[in-house]
């Protein structure tokens, strides 16, 4: 296994001021956006979305052994990854019988079963998400023609992992992170309103691509505010290239009103940053401007086809 790169939902709020500055950077890179969207209709992409969640939770609890054999045969890499790394089942330390009981307990647990049932109501079919991701990967092949299109696996993790990349061919989509802002079982202690408002179907393709882009850009270099601005600016720039028709409010997880505020208050934000340059620790990463940022365990440079910002 090459890597287990994870994109989790943040538990700490990213400052609106910091994110707004990144928005300015993105806007400057994507000037006249919408006018020069490349035609990718000729690019053929075979996007494979595997409903691992349905395959797992449809197992017959009276025939777990044969069901797990079928699951392992169909999804050999992802099955092991899911149980060991996502759900924390110590597969290597359990006997076959113990592991089968653990699986049976997992898919029979009332709380987890309720999450799965809700996911089937919201994501019974993924036609809208598939269409959005299909076009996104056409743009992906346009900018990065040498890169393979990964297989997307759907899963639930009891609100632990939103999306992740593993190896070169696995891109995993956590359906339980897109059940809607008013879903009653999102604990507000971990998912405050500003996060919950983007945990819905409209944001799901962006959420999945966040993990892919995070893996592409790799680890942040340096610990200064400028380093974080450049690092996150690259990610926003690539995301905008893959989702050129998606509103900025979704790409930034802002409300439309907040995006408008950012556009109307550009000068004031620069004044604040200029003021903080005089701070004795101005060269370091200031916590009031930063929040949680997921990182990949791989470092790549795949930006050659995109214009330098």
Summary of the model, kept short:
By secondary structure, the chain is α/β, with parallel strands linked by helices. It has helices spanning 16-29, 52-57, 64-74, 76-86, 96-108, 110-122, 127-143, 193-196, 204-217, 225-242, 248-252, 256-264, 266-276, and strands at residues 4-7, 49-50, 151-155, 163-166, 170-174.
List keywords for this structure.
47% helix, disordered N terminus, alpha/beta, five-stranded mixed beta sheet, 309 residues, 13 helices
Question: What is the residue-mean pLDDT, rounded to a whole number?
Answer: 83
- DSSP summary: helix tally: 13
Distance between the termini: 34 Å
Q: What value does the Rg take, in angstroms?
A: 21 Å
The largest sheet is: 5 strands, mixed
Strand order of the largest sheet: 1-4-5-3-2
Low-confidence runs of at least 5 consecutive residues: 1-6, 9-17, 282-309
Derived from helix and strand composition plus strand pairing, the structural class reads alpha/beta
Shape: globular
- Total beta strand runs: 5
Q: Oligomeric status of the shown chains?
A: single chain
Q: Bin the strand percentage.
A: 5-15%
SSE series: EHEHHHHHHEEEHHHHHH
- Helix residue percentage: 40-55%
How would you describe this structure to a colleague?
The longest helix has 18 residues, at 225-242. This protein has a 5-stranded mixed beta sheet with strand order 1-4-5-3-2, with helices on both faces. The radius of gyration is 21 Å and the shape is globular. Helix 1 (16-29) packs across helix 10 and helix 3 (64-74) crosses helix 4 (76-86). It contains 13 helices and 5 strands. The protein has a domain at 4-47 and 124-289. The relative contact order is 0.18. The chain is 47% helix and 6% strand. It has helices spanning 16-29, 52-57, 64-74, 76-86, 96-108, 110-122, 127-143, 193-196, 204-217, 225-242, 248-252, 256-264, 266-276, and strands spanning 4-7, 49-50, 151-155, 163-166, 170-174. With 309 residues, the chain is of the alpha/beta class.
């Amino acid at each position: 296994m090459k890597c287990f790169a994870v994109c989790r939902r943040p538990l700490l709020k990213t400052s609106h001021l910091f994110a707004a500055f990144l928005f300015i950077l993105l806007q400057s890179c994507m000037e006249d956006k919408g006018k020069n969207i490349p035609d990718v209709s000729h690019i053929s992409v075979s996007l494979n979305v595997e409903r691992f969640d349905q395959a797992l939770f449809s197992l017959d609890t009276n025939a777990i052994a044969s069901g797990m054999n079928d699951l392992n045969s169909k999804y050999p890499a992802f099955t092991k990854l899911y149980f060991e790394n996502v759900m924390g089942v110590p597969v290597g330390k359990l006997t076959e019988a113990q592991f089968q009981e653990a699986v049976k307990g997992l898919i029979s647990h009332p709380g987890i079963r309720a999450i799965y049932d809700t996911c089937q109501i919201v994501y019974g079919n993924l036609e809208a998400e598939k269409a959005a991701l299909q076009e996104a990967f056409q743009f992906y092949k346009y900018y990065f023609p040498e890169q393979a299109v990964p297989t997307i696996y759907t899963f639930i993790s009891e609100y632990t992992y939103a999306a992740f990349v593993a190896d070169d061919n696995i891109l995993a989509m956590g359906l339980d992170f897109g059940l809607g802002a008013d879903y009653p079982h999102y604990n507000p202690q971990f998912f405050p309103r500003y996060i919950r408002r983007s945990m819905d179907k409209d944001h799901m393709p962006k959420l999945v691509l966040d993990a892919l882009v995070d893996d592409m850009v790799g680890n942040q270099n340096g610990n200064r505010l400028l380093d974080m601005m450049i690092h996150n600016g690259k990610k926003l720039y690539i995301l905008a290239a893959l989702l050129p028709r998606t509103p900025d409010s979704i790409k930034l997880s802002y409300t439309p009103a907040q995006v408008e505020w950012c556009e109307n208050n550009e000068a004031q934000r620069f004044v604040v940053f200029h003021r903080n340059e005089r701070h004795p620790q101005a060269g370091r990463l200031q916590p009031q401007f930063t929040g949680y940022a997921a990182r990949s365990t791989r470092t790549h440079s795949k930006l050659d086809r995109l214009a330098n910002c």
